[in-house]
Amino acid sequence: MAGLYFEQFQVGQVFRHDIRRTVTETDNVLFSTMTHNPAAIHLDAEYAKGTEFGKPLMNSVFTLGLMVGISVGDTTLGTTVGNLGWDEVRFPKPVFAGDTLHVETAVLEKRESKSRPLNGIVVFQHTAWNQRNEVVATCKRVALMHRSPLDSVGTKA
């Protein structure tokens, strides 16, 4: 199992994910069209030339998904029940085709689940930077995590 169980996370723990990803125009067009987002700022280079950015922006929901996706292998792969929510999603700098993103995740909180004794809740802070080390995206993600099979209700099996 690549991901960690609830008991293995510690508040303050930081993951600097090894995976980096250069985003492409194809990523942007595919994601925008697959999600029925026809915004000209993502799909129309001529329109985008007239904006303050001068070229198409990467779809921000793609950026959010990529940021969280890069984190999964080190944190929640195979050990999460599901996401409970994303809060404080921010995009302080634009992302363009050709940017290379890298991601870091910090554990902000963890607590027992009151309604699900076989699970715990972990709050992650995800941050993505571009190749110039400018923060391009942040979010808090609340995940419902499996407890270790050896400690599923606080006792050894």
What does this structure look like?
The protein has 157 residues and is α+β, with helices and mostly antiparallel strands. The protein has a single domain (6-24, 60-151), classed as Thiol Ester Dehydrase, Chain A (Roll), CATH 3.10.129. 22% of the residues lie in helices and 36% in strands. It contains four helices and five strands; from the N terminus they run βααααββββ. A five-stranded antiparallel beta sheet has the order 1-3-4-5-2, covered by helices on one side. A hairpin with a 6-residue loop joins strand 3 and strand 4 (119-129). It starts with 13 loop residues before the first strand and ends in an 11-residue tail after the last strand.
Task: State the gist of this model.
The protein is α+β, with helices and mostly antiparallel strands and 157 residues long. The protein has helices at residues 25-34, 40-43, 45-49, 60-75, and strands at residues 14-22, 80-90, 100-112, 119-129, 135-146.
- What separation lies between the terminal Cα atoms? 19 Å
Sheet with the most strands: spatial strand order: 1-3-4-5-2
Structural class: alpha+beta
- CATH architectural type: Roll
Give the H and E element order: EHHHHEEEE
The rounded Rg comes to: 18 Å
Q: Given this structure, which CATH class is correct? A: Alpha Beta
Quick one: biggest sheet?
5 strands, antiparallel
